[in-house]
Amino acid sequence: MKKLKVYRLSLGWQIMLGLVIGIILGVVFTNDKKFIAFANGLGSTFINMISMIVLPIVFSSLVVGIANMGDIKKLGRIGLKTLIYFEVLSTIAFIIGMVVSNFAKLGYMLDLNKLSQVDISSYVKTAKQASHSGLGSILMSIVPSNFFEALAAGEILPVIFFSCLFGLGIAAIGEKGKILLQFFQAVAEVMFKITGWIMHFAPFGVAGLIGATVAQLGLESLKPLGLFIVMSYVTMAVFILVILGIVSRMFDFRILDQLRVVKDELVLAFTTASSEVTLPRLMEKTQKLGVDQAISSFVIPTGYTFNLDGSAIYQSLAAIFLAQAYHINLTLSQQLTLLLVLMITSKGMAGVPGASFVVLLATVSTIGVPVSGLALIAGIDRLVDMGRTVVNVAGNVTATLIIGKSENEFDQKKHDDYVATFK
Question: Which residues cross the membrane (predicted)?
């Protein structure tokens, strides 16, 4: 007898199925508090499962990578190069967002009287707390007074700092450090194995997250701001395909190859609106793409905090959009000032929960938009957040490949062989 061939959906398709089921359930159970609570619980459980393993993976992988590198000057060069790359790309993203919003003029089409007001008090509270800790405070907080406290609090920059020092320390003691190196290599491999198990729960988590969102907002409430959502997604798609595409070609990479390889992670980022859930698999896949472990283990976690391409596009689009909604005609000098304020504020808010929306709260008052005006887009923030997270994840992959190649820590044959498996 011939055995029946069993077709198994890939993770990406499973997640998409979860997305569709979540939307349907959200429509069926609109404003049902019990369903919303259950769906949020399901989604939060998945996010917590991923969050549980992110820092152990970052710590173990970075320690192994830096120990094998063993060169503090090289580490400093890689760090500086990474931060400059992220800054340049996020500045381009800010400018593109402002240009598109000026050209589209969608804000003028809004009827402010027809839009329901959304409670943004939680964002205002976060903004007030974050305003006391600017960029300087964030840089100071990189050095932890207690590593285990930073690990427990989920503070990724202090963990990166300590991991780099610990890895360099292992390299400095030579043979004696080999047992530690083997231990952390084993820890990293165990964490990646656990990641694979957790990802089987992803479709359920996605269904819960999107179902709760649709049930809370309702599809009808999204219609007035539908054009803004479309404008945001089109701009983000152009940034990925054109800007990241051009940057990739400058280093002999193809953006479409990168998107094929990490398509499952992009779908996961889109449906959960979280970069964190993709971090373990991105570190693993970029290493399979030929990037040295030390580069991958450093650039991707750093990008989780400083790679702001998607957020930059959204913030600049939204700021101009809101000004137009209130019929505030900004001069060129005012827009340049807005660009400068966005660049500074976004760095100061890095790592703050709901950072993109908090940046807008701290910024729009400089162009005359009342803070209460952000209630206009608060309802769709989650939906746009899904798109900007995809841009951040795609940007992280491109950055890792480019930094790896610029440091000659890149295996072209390994890259080509791995890409070929996705064609």
Answer: 12-29, 49-70, 82-104, 150-173, 194-219, 225-247, 326-345, 357-378
- For 90-119, write each residue's pLDDT tens digit: 899 999 999 999 998 887 776 655 544 444
What is 11-71+83-420's CATH number, 3.30.750.24, 1.20.1530.20, 3.30.70.120, 1.10.3860.10? 1.10.3860.10
3-state secondary structure the chain: CCCCCCCCCCHHHHHHHHHHHHHHHHHHCCCCHHHHHHHHHHHHHHHHHHHHHHHHHHHHHHHHHHHHHCCHHHHHHHHHHHHHHHHHHHHHHHHHHHHHHHHHCHHHHCCHHHCCCCCCHHHHHHHHHHHCCCHHHHHHCCCCCCHHHHHHHCCHHHHHHHHHHHHHHHHHCHHHHHHHHHHHHHHHHHHHHHHHHHHHHHHHHHHHHHHHHHHHHCCHHHHHHHHHHHHHHHHHHHHHHHHHHHHHHHCCCCHHHHHHHCHHHHHHHHHHCCCHHHHHHHHHHHHHCCECHHHHHHHHHHHHHHCCHHHHHHHHHHHHHHHHHCCCCCCHHHHHHHHHHHHHHHHHCCCCCCHHHHHHHHHHHHHCCCHHHHHHHHCCHHHHHHHHHHHHHHHHHHHHHHHHHHCCCECHHHHHHHHHCCC
Question: What residues does each domain of the chain span?
Answer: 11-71+83-420
Q: What pLDDT digit, counting tens, does each position of 205-233 carry?
A: 888 887 887 787 666 655 657 788 889 99
Q: What is the pTM of this model?
A: 0.76
